[in-house]
Design brief:
single chain, 457 residues, mainly alpha, Na+/H+ antiporter like fold, 3% strand
Length: 457
């Protein structure tokens, strides 16, 4: 029975629910995928309405920051793609770091299969695209079909519920994380502008300073965030894409906590005994200053037993999933569609390369490389998974929304027509991949579940 004076707000019920990092990650990526889809639809509707001119004008409006003679001026569109998306890449970097150290990719033997799948899912789509666009400005888009949008893909898997094994979620997360790493490397190496070596040296010096304060034992996030902004400014001027500042910063943020768990448990146990003893003398916490002091000490211990990287990843998920990515979708998914010219648009070499790469390339690359790895004995499928599940995930891998559009913006910055074709191809491919992947796993998942039920009876 609850105390009559105890009040529990509806949202407080979530307090008792404990989520593992991977469950929290999947939950937020799933809901982010739904919001992302909604924002993409809104952007497309606006781009094909009388509001398009206003929409375009707002995105091209200049915003400036100045300090004395120093001025930084970019359009709202560029602030979103170069500024806000640096926060997205920071979160991607934190997720990569966690997965490599303690997650799905920390055990090389277990990680080998999704790594092989991700490599196939990057190489084959790029080759398909390049086979259709071998020269001219269009060739710069070869990196577009390499990416998988984890939020959308996990959102589709979540709709399938228990029709798919839980191991498939872990496989997709690991695959998409490696895929993100590949996309980051492609952006850093192949989509870098002419370098300003002075600014680049400044960025390198800042990275050395950041590494130094990490080794020096500084665990508060604020110094890293302040220097991270300066790092972003240096990279923006250097010609290396500024969003990569998020990745570099994430890998320098400390992953070790200030307190070890044993020390925390000893201190927390002692503090709880003190709180219990002090509570008896005065149960009203507002009047009981000793109890408040002990609770604050406990709070401080809880904060210090968590690594700064863990705390930042936890707190960054919400604004990135529900603010940054939706804004990116609103700013970049607005594709004008001329129904009369839709056939010509879809059969344009750029559109065909993107669609072929994302739909066929991901299917052949992921499923094909996994099949070869299993047949050669390089790796094995998890016991609850079969090749039908791999084919389904391969189809979902063709959902390449966020990172694909981002790479398209980089590759076709000077070619508006090719950019339009690429975005149209991304939207069409993501639609095809999402529907076919869902249907494939829905019907094959039903048959697998029936087989399992028969075995159990």
């Amino acid at each position: 029975m609850l105390d009559k004076e105890e009040y529990i707000a509806p949202w407080e019920k979530a307090f008792k629910r404990v989520l593992t990092p991977i469950e929290e990650f999947i939950h937020r990526q799933t809901t982010s995928g739904i919001l992302l889809m909604l924002c993409a639809v809104i952007a497309i509707i606006i781009a094909n309405s009388s509001w398009f001119e206003t929409y375009h004008h707002v995105l091209e409006t200049k915003l400036s920051l100045s300090l004395g003679e120093w001025v930084l001026s970019m359009s709202i569109h560029h602030w979103i793609n170069d500024g806000l998306m640096a926060l997205f890449f920071f979160l991607v970097g934190l997720e990569l770091k966690r997965e490599l150290l303690v997650g799905e990719l920390s055990n090389f033997k277990a990680a080998l299969l999704p790594i092989i799948a991700a490599i196939g899912g990057m190489v084959v789509p790029a080759l398909i695209y390049f086979s259709l666009n071998q020269s001219g400005p269009a060739a710069d888009g070869w990196g577009i079909p390499m990416a998988t949008d984890i939020a959308f893909a996990l959102g589709v898997l979540a709709l399938l519920g228990n029709r798919v094994p839980k191991a498939l979620l872990g496989f997709l997360v690991a695959l998409a994380i490696v895929d993100d790493l590949g996309a980051v490397l492609v952006i850093a190496i192949f989509y870098t502008e002419q370098l300003d070596f002075t600014a680049l040296m400044g960025a390198i010096a800042l990275l050395v300073i950041l590494a130094g304060i990490n080794l020096g034992g500084i665990r508060k996030p604020l110094p890293y965030m302040v220097l991270g902004v300066v790092l972003w400014l240096f990279l923006l001027k250097s010609g290396v894409h500024a969003t990569l500042a998020g990745i570099f910063l994430a890998f320098i943020i400390p992953i070790r906590p200030k307190y070890d768990p044993k020390r925390f448990l000893q201190g927390a146990t002692e503090l709880l005994k003190n709180i219990e003893s002090i509570y008896k003398s005065e149960p009203n916490i507002i009047k009981n200053y000793k109890m408040r002091a002990n609770i604050r000490s406990l709070e401080n211990g809880i904060r210090n037993v968590q690594a700064p990287a863990q705390i930042l990843e936890h707190h960054m998920h919400l604004p990135i999933a529900y603010l940054v990515i939706p804004i990116f979708a609103l700013a970049n998914a607005g594709v004008p569609i001329d129904i009369k010219e839709l056939g010509n648009t879809l059969f344009h070499p750029v559109s065909m390369g993107v669609i072929g790469g994302l739909v066929l390339g991901k299917l052949i690359g992921i499923a094909g490389f996994v099949w070869i790895a299993v047949k050669l004995g390089i790796s094995t499928l998890p016991t609850s998974m079969n090749m039908k599940h791999i084919i389904g995930v391969s189809l979902l891998g063709g959902i390449g929304f966020t990172m694909s559009i981002f790479i398209a913006e980089l590759g076709f910055a000077q070619s508006p027509e090719d950019l339009l074709m690429a975005k149209t191809g991304i939207l069409m491919a993501s639609l095809i991949a999402g529907i076919t992947g869902y249907l494939w796993l829905y019907f094959n998942g039903a048959s697998n579940r029936a087989e399992n039920d028969n075995i159990s009876t």
